[in-house]
Amino acid sequence: MRFCLSINLVRYAELILPDVRFDFLLRFFPILAALTVFRVISFVPAVHAQDNYEIQVYGYDTVEPGHTMVELHSNFTFEGSKTSPHGMYPTNHQLHETIEITHGFTDWFETGFYIFTSEHNGQGIDWVGDHIRPRVRIPPKWKWPVGLSLSNEIGYQRRQYSVDTWTWEMRPIIDKQAGRWCFSFNPTFDKSIHGLSESQGFVFSPNVKVSYDFTKKITGGFEYYGSVGPATLLRSHRAATAPVFSSH
């Protein structure tokens, strides 16, 4: 298991329909000149729909109906591969820019669309792939004690950037707001649809976020990303009584 420090800067622009009016919101963080957030990431060989292009633990809230939110996710890989494993480009010192466009249709349904790009010395700016992400949630009017939501993300990424060209991510979302504190848990299941890992089945990745609202525009938080490995049921008769999570 390897840990590293990742810097992620997210910028937002919101398009309000039908007025076609732009409201820009820059979310500041109190760490590193209020512009970055530290994330501790656990890396293991597994399939990840987000990978290190759009690193995020989702909360329960969805975009308001009739609103479209545009986000720019910027991630830089300080320490990555320096060779070309499986014919992929080296990841060391790659800069990833991801455009995320999310539209709210109702108070319980939204759909997001991602455009992944990568920039590296000697490669220039390159298109990596696109994903689509419909998401539903329990309506707020039901007044449940915790927020519950389900996201499904499916998409394509070029073979030079991933051993799996088509992937599916199923992400349940559980969160709880307690005053200025917010706790969010994303028990994520990733599946390769086409590529070297498609025979693995679903890979379980627990993601956790704890954040604190210092003001309405300043939030500081800690996020953890991990991967247990392929989740296998009924591998043997002895293991038939419970799910087995194996690490590779």
Which terms would index this structure?
single chain; mainly beta; Porin; 11-stranded mixed beta barrel; 14 strands; 0% helix; globular
Describe this structure in words.
- This protein has 248 residues and is mainly beta.
- The chain has one domain: Beta Barrel (Porin), CATH 2.40.160.
- Helices cover 0% and strands 56% of the residues.
- The chain has no helices and 14 strands.
- It has an 11-stranded mixed β-barrel with strand order 1-3-12-11-10-9-8-7-6-5-4.
- It is globular.
- The termini are close together.
Number of DSSP E strands: 14
Q: What is the overall shape? A: globular
Number of domains: 1
The stretches of 5 or more residues where confidence is low (pLDDT under 50) are 1-7, 14-50, 233-248
Arithmetic mean pLDDT: 78
Could you describe the largest sheet, including whether it forms a barrel?
Answer: 11 strands, mixed, barrel
Percent of residues in helices comes to under 10%
Distance between the termini: 11 Å
Determine Rg (CA atoms, Å): 19 Å
Q: How would you name the oligomeric state of the polypeptide chains in this document?
A: single chain
Helical/strand content category: mainly beta
CATH topology: Porin
What is the CATH architecture term? Beta Barrel
Regarding CATH, which class? Mainly Beta
Number of continuous helical runs: 0
Question: Largest sheet, order of strands side by side?
Answer: 1-3-12-11-10-9-8-7-6-5-4
Strand fraction: over 45%
H/E element sequence: EEEEEEEEEEEEEE
